[in-house]
Amino acid sequence: MQRERVLLRGGRVVDPANQVDRITDVLIADGRIAEIGPALDSTGARLVPADGHVVAPGLIDVHVHLREPGYETKETIATGTAAAAAGGFTSIFCMPNTRPALDSVATLDDLRQRIAVSALVRVFPIAAITAGRLGQRAVDFSALVEAGAVGFSDDGDTTADCSIMRQALAATLDHGRPVMVHCEDKALAPGSMHEGEVSRRLGLRGIPAAAEEIVIARDLMLARLTGGWLHICHLSTGRGAELVRRAKADGVRVTAEVMPHHLLMSDQWVDTSRSLLNVDEPIGPTATPRDPHTKVNPPLRTGEDTRQLITAVVDGTIDLVATDHAPHGAAEKTGSVYEDAAFGLSGLELALPLMLALVRARHLSLGDVITRMSCVPAKLWSLAAGTLSPGALADVVVFDPDQPWIVDAAKLKTKSANTPLIGMELQGRVKHTFVGGVDRYGT
Question: On the chain, which terminus has fewer CB atoms closer than 10 Å, C or N?
């Protein structure tokens, strides 16, 4: 099927994979990048003015909870991928904590059929490490890779059995997909927020940073032992970043991701703060202590942790930025006291503007952001994405980096707008998201 021709006229084209950052045109034809250059011929093409906007490879999020099958009251493939498109993401990886868990060829086949019907962006499944995510028996890694799995994770349920983790990491040498770990010693983590001064002031039981760091250290040792590919999900502590930094220097095959909320928010947000850290941005509306929308796992850490994590992004210790988009219904958040509320934040529509705040504060360049949110994940997982090279698939995001907007729950595409950013002013708005040349989100 021939797709429409689209000419993106006069945007700032940022394509770090080709070291491109200039004002020029991009022509999309038959689902691919046809040409990049000044004053391209628009004959037969839909003209999309992009002056004042950035044109970049579509963003890739390797950590998303779509909730389907089993938890469609929180999110569905349709609503989750609509949120992804609104956030500039053209490819997302979905986590296996569904019902049933993504632990068999049959469940991946069922998911693939659902994706074909409902998805607006590309969706790649992450399979469970153990059957039912129960931590007792390893899945058939080879069969699941054959069925389309791009990684393996028990996600919120850390795989406690070292022998299973060793087996999973060793298997990556054969199938080339990472073990993507949620690092948490649950015996140390019965709390609801970061353990520290703020938790003590609020009278809330805390989750110490050591609960994460102990498991990071264990899994790095197992990665060293096996030579396998370890990917650390949602790194949240400065000491954890230092463990990764040292392991990389020693030749361990480890990659790591960080979430925007762990770069820009601290445990002070659980109290009353609505000021983004490390940047000069508008302060949000007055908040009340123990807002369940601030409850996330791993928890919001200290301001010092945020600064150390930014350093780790800048020096390459942290490879990429993901969202850990974790939608929950209102009853699970605002209908609960803090201790009983569900862990998780909605992030797909908010990640890019949060990262652009770090660009304005000169911690990162725009090219750095596109690299860590598109080029690096594409390269690590060998995806046909992350570039605007002529002939490449036309997965493209167009955004206005300067447009201010107020986060309004009613206007977000996600089914569950559980975020403490509601009512805050952010800057940077997606205008178009093209997936294979098809405009999946346009304003």
Answer: N
